[in-house]
Amino acid sequence: DIQLTQSPSFLSASVGDRVTITCRASQGISSYLAWYQQIPGKAPKLLIYAASTLQSGVPSRFSGSGSGTEFTLTISSLQPEDFATYYCQQVNSLPLTFGGGTKVEIK
Amino acid sequence: EVQLVESGGGLVQPGGSLRLSCAASGFTFSDHYMDWVRQAPGKGLEWVGRDRNKANGYTTEYAASVKGRFTISRDDSKNSLFLQMNSLKIEDTAVYYCARSLPYSPQDYWGQGTLVTVSS
User: Fold this and answer.
1) pLDDT tens per residue, range B22-34
2) Whole-angstrom distance, CA of residue B91 vs CA of residue B16
3) What is the dihedral of CA B23, B3, A52, B105, to 10 degrees?
4) In this structure, are residues A29 and A92 in contact, taking their beta carbons and an 8 Å threshold?
5) Do B112 and A55 touch (CB under 8 A)?
6) Which of A45, A55, A98 faces B44 most closely, judged by CB atoms?
7) Distance between CA atoms of B63 and A63, rounded to whole angstroms?
8) Using the beta-carbon criterion (under 8 Å), do A95 and B64 form an inter-chain contact?
9) Which candidate among A11, A14, A61, B80 keeps its CA 20 to 30 Å from the CA of B89?
C-alpha cells in the first residue's frame, strides 16, 4: 500500500497568512494526488485533483503542486472559512489512501 | 445537481450486520465508479471499497480491513449503492460516506454520511 505522510499535522495561522501543507508518498504516484478540505461535521470537499488542477468552484487562493513523491497545497491568503482539516489522497493505485490530515486553526 | 444520500446507519452489537444504502441523483449513475469511505470518530479518512461501473463489469475492490466481511453492490435501475456489513467489529464504528469517482480520479461528490456504531 502507498503511505502518505502529511506535514505539519497541525498549524496555527492568522487570516491573510500564506499556508503550505506538504504530502509525501512512500512511492512515486506521478500526479495522481488530490487534496480535500473537511469542516467538522461535514463531508470532505474536493479542492484539487491531478496534483495541481483546481476543482470547479474552488477559490483561486488554493493551489497545488508536485509530482512523484512530494506534493504541496498552498493557500495564498488564509480566509476565515479556510479553518478546517486538509487531507491528501493518492488515486494512483488501490487501496486508495489518505494522508493523516492537517488541522488549520486560528492563531 | 448531483446528490448522494446515505441511510441505514445505527447501533449494532459486535458480530452483527447492517446494510447501508446510498441514493444517487443528478448524474448518470451507471457511468460512474462508486466508493465507500469511512471516518472513525476524531480520526482521518479511510477508503473502504469500490464498485466499478457497468462498462467495467461492476467489479468490486475492498480495503484489507473489511475484505471478506463487507460487500458492495449497486442497483442501476434504482440509482442506488449498497454496503452490506457483516461480522461487525467495534473498530468499524465510523461515519460512512458514499462518493462518486472514476478511474485514477478522486471522489468529486460525497454524501452527508451515516453513522454506524458497533457497541455492546
Assistant:
1) 999 999 999 999 9
2) 13
3) 20
4) yes
5) no
6) A98
7) 30
8) yes
9) B80
How far is it, in rounded angstroms, from Cα B46 to Cα B37? 6
β-strand partners of B46:
B38
Distances (CA, A) of B4 to A65, B31, B85: 30, 15, 19
Lookup result for grid cell 500564506: A18
What is the residue type of A67?
A: S
Question: Nearest residue of A to residue B102 by CA position?
Answer: A91
- Reading the block at residue A50, the C-alpha cell is 491531478
- Tell me how long chain B is: 120
pLDDT digits (tens, 9 = 90+) for A25-83: 999 999 999 999 999 999 999 999 999 999 999 999 999 999 999 999 999 999 999 99
Contact (CB, 8 A) for A86 and A80: no
In B14-110, at which residue ranges do the beta strands (DSSP E only) sit?
18-25, 33-39, 45-51, 60-62, 70-75, 80-85, 94-101, 109-110
